[in-house]
Amino acid sequence: MPLPPHSLPSCPFCAIAAAYPPSSSLHPSPPNTTTASTATGSLPDPPLARVLLSTPYLVAFLDHAPISRGHVLIATRQHREKLSDVSVEEGRTLGAWMGILCRAVVTSVLGEEGNAGGTKARGGETGADEDAVGDWNVVQNNGARAAQVVPHVHFHIIPRPGDVPEIKNRSWTIFGKGQREELDDEDAEVLIDGMREQLAKEIERLRRREGEEGLRLLMGEEERKREYKL
């Protein structure tokens, strides 16, 4: 299993990227556990990751030590240490997928919570909003002094459930410090299945709202003919 170009043999996110090549399926194949090798070294068998999305430019997966239930990481496929290192195409792809992935993650984890309090319609009338999503953080750290633990560009999507008071009071944990728990294997399978199902719905939602041009902008020229299916 060769590493992608510009990968770092000791980087765990590079290992995940190598184990889960780009796929149009929302049920990625089990990781290839063959040792990855390059001219400069080799990677051990990659850790099991619950991958939500794997494209030529990014990979999204559950954090193994989540701050809250449904904590997801979006990492560049190539090894880029800081956000200032990403290419224009990588930046475009990260930006294009960010909103779709946030909706898929937060909606699947928080369910109807986004509609619980109602929203103001155009006429000032309060009611349910089909576009409402719950609350969440998107966090991206650069460098050890900024609390970046793995020196590989990644974004955190951290759902914030309203029925867990202690989560409300932990805003400081978004910088990589604070209480974390190991990901529960059984719950992880439930989470990732729900997120994949919701991601498929969000892609179809985009198709309905913005047509094929919206899909082209989301996926880029390389992927515009790919169909992401469950």
What does this structure look like?
The chain is of the alpha+beta class and 230 residues long. Helix content is 32%, strand content 15%. The strands form three sheets. A five-stranded antiparallel sheet has the order 3-4-5-9-8, sandwiched between helices. It has a two-stranded antiparallel sheet with strand order 1-2. Strands 6-7 form a two-stranded antiparallel ribbon. β3 (51-54) and β4 form a beta hairpin. The longest helix has 39 residues, at 185-223. The two termini are 25 Å apart.
List keywords for this structure.
230 residues; alpha+beta; two-stranded antiparallel sheet; globular
What layout of secondary structure does this protein have?
Layout: H1 12-19, E1 36-38, E2 41-43, E3 51-54, E4 58-62, E5 72-76, H2 88-110, E6 119-120, E7 126-127, E8 136-139, E9 154-159, H3 165-168, H4 185-223
Antiparallel strand pairs: 1-2, 3-4, 4-5, 5-9, 6-7, 8-9
